[in-house]
Records
---
Amino acid sequence: MAATVPWERLRTAGAKLTTPLHPDDYLRLLNPLWSERELRGRVEEVRPETEDAATLVIRPGWGWRYDHRPGQYVGIGVQVDGRFQWRSYSVSSPPRRSGRSISITVRAMPEGKLSSHLVNGLAPGTIVRLARPEGDFVLPEPPPAKMLFLVGGSGVTPVMAMLRTMDRRSQKSGRAMPDVLMHYSSPTPERMIFREELDRLEEKHDGLTVHRLHTDTEGMLDLADLDHICPDWRERETWACGPGPMLDAITEHFEAAGLEDRLHLERFSLQLGGEGGEGGTITFRTSGRTIDADGATTVLEAGEEAGVGMPYGCRMGICHTCTLTLVSGTVRDLRNGEEYDQPNEQVQTCVTAAVGDCTLDI
Amino acid sequence: MAIADVKEYTHLTEEEVDQLGRELDAIRAEIEESRCDQDAAYINRLITVQRGLAAAGRVTLMAGLHSRRTRKPAWLAGAAMLGAAKILENMEIGHNVMHGQWDWMNDPEIHSSNWEWDTAQPAEQWKHSHNYIHHQFTNVLGHDNDIGYGVLRMAREQRWHPVYLGQPVFNALLAGLFQWGVALHDLDLEAIRKGKKDPVEMKRQLRQIARKGRNQVLKDYVVYPALSGKQWKSTLKANATANLARNLWSYMIIFCGHFPDGALHFTEEELEDETRAEWYLRQMLGSANFDGGRFLHIMSGSLGFQIEHHLFPDLPSNRYPEIAVKVRALCEKYDIPYTTGPLHRQYGQALRTIMKLSLPNHMTSSDQPEPPSPSIDRGRRTDAERPSRRTETGGYFRKRASA
């Protein structure tokens, strides 16, 4: 910390020379990573994992803290046809303060323009934007003694970060890895991301057992078989990550057993669980547009409807690209019902809806 | 009276006006769909060049003034680079970014919601006074404060007052201090004069201007001169020169936008029942272009394409040249005037208007060109047939209410 204080002071003093810009706005012309204005990183390597998946090794620029918890995801913004497109991917590398890079593993989706671009079209050296790590699908501190991972397809990536973290710790401390049972479904052996590394880890740690299920030939996992695959699943903390239907089935199964407290899920789609807003007239001050929006319509959607050039990224409350200044009025976060009503408060338009009339600065 | 009764296009039927609107909408849609990485590369390259120029100018001044041998060329080069950087930043970059021309890139670093420019006016106030007031109510007397910026009489419809005899002097002051004139613009001097301004809002705006202005003044007139040590005076002069050059240049370009002969003014009544297509028409008739090469257009923030800019204020400026070809063809097709000419002539006409209108109307003659073709009867009443309406604005100088 001691070293960063004079540095910060220097940058603040430098702003007197560059006002209304920040020194970073000039420094990034020398090195694209020398800016804290927006988190960014340089793609160092694109490593193919399977036919349609690749690991991107990214070196983050200034302002990155390397403090993600194993299992969290980051937003990544890539300019495609001149426009920044944002998606979120789990970090697959373990957190390491001395680290110089992070890795994310991406599977190219048939419909996913951006995921295909990331897997096939991204050259090393490309500068991408990053968003801070987020998510509660994380390895607890300390890890529980007995764990179960239920993984499908590219859902393996957050779990991989957890396994790598436990592997590294056991190596450092010399203690054995906790008792981990992992059930990994994948259409074919070839499409199984990290299969060689998993083989190695399984061999190295007595505590780790990996069940591989190739669904093209063996069919989907029937949860009734769970008693057979993992007789003590009721006693384990469980983490599940994979396609939506798989997670729905797992949730149902755990609820039926009254064990939903033991289950941790990761879904890459927005769950708007909170109360809706009440709706109202939203005014977009500088563009001079107004629109009546109901309580279920996000400010972002309302703005787009009104023809305002709204900034947005992930559209699920992660990347903060959509953040705007709320001049007056109140908006409610649709995820948790939290209300924002301070004048000039920064609000995320993609997850908030109007509570009465409000005005935004755009 | 609606805008459609303005004689420059009374020869168009309502269907033709609607058709013109649709054709302009189609141009917009085409550009919006074809925005691509080349456009993004344009603005990014421009920002790189501009920041490079600014940094090079500052460094040249700091390093080059100390030796007697390099002093003069360093001063000239430094001031020139700094002036060019300020012009680029204010015009082709700042003005256009704040219009939202680059919002489609979804890049928070080049976005209208948070861009702050290198001039005394806070971006927030600019976006209100310019993007909203000026672009919505373009050239409507009593609404668009850009007509004379609250200090000059730029339209014959504005009532004359002996104060306007000083117009040549006000004009010179406005040109030299343009940055500060713009800084005060959103305060709306006319509203203050009439006592219509909300004092709380005025205080807030003044505080905002003071904060921004202080940082700007500190940077150019205190911090950089101080860093130049013994040569502080030279640096201060170079910075002042760069600011002055930017002021004069941007003043001239901006006065070429709506004041050359041929650019019309409108009255409040003409705004009534205005359709989208009629709004387009008002923008075309109220604006004037000037001719020039690519370099001139970039240095003037693409405002040489004022007509295209007013039709599509939020389309990327590097696309205006191709839009202009299409708009010009439409003007020919519909027989609507398309005002343009060389820069010196356009500014000359604006200057002549400033001089002429310092005198009462009866002492001068109008320079507005005749409309291009005879009107057709559209079944609307003429001015003579309708009740009298206000023909002048600027009544605030009057002591008594008399026509």
---
Amino acid sequence: MALLEVRDLTIALRADGEDTTLVQGVSYQIEPGETLALVGESGSGKSLSSLAVMGLLAKELVVTSGEIVMEGENLLDLSDEEMRRRRGRDMAMVFQEPMTSLNPVLTIGAQIIESIEENLGLSRAAARERAIELLKEVGVADAERRLKQYPHHFSGGMRQRVMIAIALAAEPKLIIADEPTTALDVTIQAQILDLMARLCREHGTALVLITHNLGIVARYAQRVNVMYSGRIVESGPAAEIYHNPRHPYSEGLLQSVPRLDQDRSVPLAPIKGSPADPFMSITGCRFHPRCDYAGPICRQTAPDFDGSVACHFPLDTQQKDAS
Amino acid sequence: MSAPLLRIENVSVHFPVHKGLMQREVAAVKAVEKVTLTLNQGEAFGLVGESGCGKTTLARTVLRLVDPTEGEIWFDGQNITGMSGKSLLPYRKRVAAIFQDPFSSLNPRMTAGGILSEVLRVHRYEGDVSARVAELLQICGLAPRFADLYPHQMSGGQRQRVGIARALALEPDLIVCDEAVSALDVSIQAQIINLLTDLRKRFGLTFLFIGHDLSVVRHLCDRVAVMYLGRVMEMAGSEELFDNPEHPYTRALIDAVPNPDPLSEAERATTALAGEIPSPLDPPSGCVFHTRCPIATAQCRTEIPEAVTVGPDHVAACLAVSERPVSEKTT
């Protein structure tokens, strides 16, 4: 059974009694221990849909339809209090900027110990022991001394290690990491992602990895959801999508990134135009203004997502027609 | 081979750290340490490295926004190191900059047209200013109506196009790009990379491109220098550097970049570099990289490696490198 199943999730921004839909009909599953990547550009809804899973949407953002089912229970039916308990124990989130997610006026120790006491119901002394254990596990040397220090004593990479320790404290079944290494240097990024991958493997934790970096997806994720303008446009095993993209947007993204193993003299093939403005209404497929393959139907009717792709003319059928 | 346009000679930049009531100088951040490099006319030169490696400080030194503590900068046969005020004006006309965040480098109270015509007026442009503004926008792929838009009315990619138009306004010879495409979405980044490549060909521009994304730098630049804690670790032509990296730091950097290809990634055995980047306030002795280097020896702790030639137009500053024949490759 899937650990988490998101069904037809739709999220809107409610302002002045008017709803603007920002995420539309997002459906996906994640199995225990699996790493699923959500990839897309700004405004694609990858962060919003994940915040909804965590029950952390801002007040103005409302889930207008859909279900988020974790182990047979719809999280959207839970009270705030029940959801808060779930968040510590069953699922945790790691954010991009560890400086803003840690409290600058509390020691690292106070913050880790607090979350352990809260989520595991341990005594202070036992929680402190566990905190030291966790810091060691995430590669923070000299853990006892480091517990007494404040976040500003830590480098960006070390702060992210602390966030991972906090996320892991209760051995959750699911971790959502939202651009966890975007603010870090490449060698530190590799350390942190290797660490997360190893820990998730050892603990059997499922990981939702939100990123815009197609290289990271290729190295760390088994399955991918490609998102564009609040919708999943393509979903499938990473190897398949990278080598045989079916949605023109997936293909465009892959052709936009320069690669280390590519002939430098060949120009990149960018997608024309800019990512769709979430507040602009677009009739038909939201990608059609940027799509080289769009036909009349794409301008009129939004394509349905069939579990693999949301496109009137998926690329493989097109190639068949052409030949 | 074309003539050198810019020559950075043995340049160091130290920022003093002051402390106490008397503001005594207690230490210095050695942001750039004895860097020598040459940019030939019409080439794109890349500086890569992680935080604190000095790439941005070096770029700012070239722009004369920061003064070098020692060393000289020569531009088109002229030593510009000691110049100041008015004597720098001709240089400022010939050297332009594009920055990372187009939102903070464009005046929010000015339209794109205003921003561009200001540059032209400051430098006493003699032609028709509004015609030139329209031309610049067109060169950068923006419709004429953008002249009347404010930065907040544009997308990130459009703002960066205005930033590029501003850099081109005075027909410079050299453009310093500091992380010029880093803040952009993948699909937009590719558009701007292609625009920069086209403009370079069209106007015969020389680029000093500072970036942390190795794939982008490799794609855009003909030659690349890898910096770490203020020093150049390795320098070579783009293909040569990425195909035959000699310095252990360059290798680690390349290893750290995942390729957007799940199949090749599955076969790739990479080991992340251990440890943190040391503080430039107190850099390690000897080779600055020795604290993280997988092949460091006792000698590396005391001896500062000189740059040695390891191939055609390829130098590396590593004690292990001179001892290894160039053809031998370990992967």
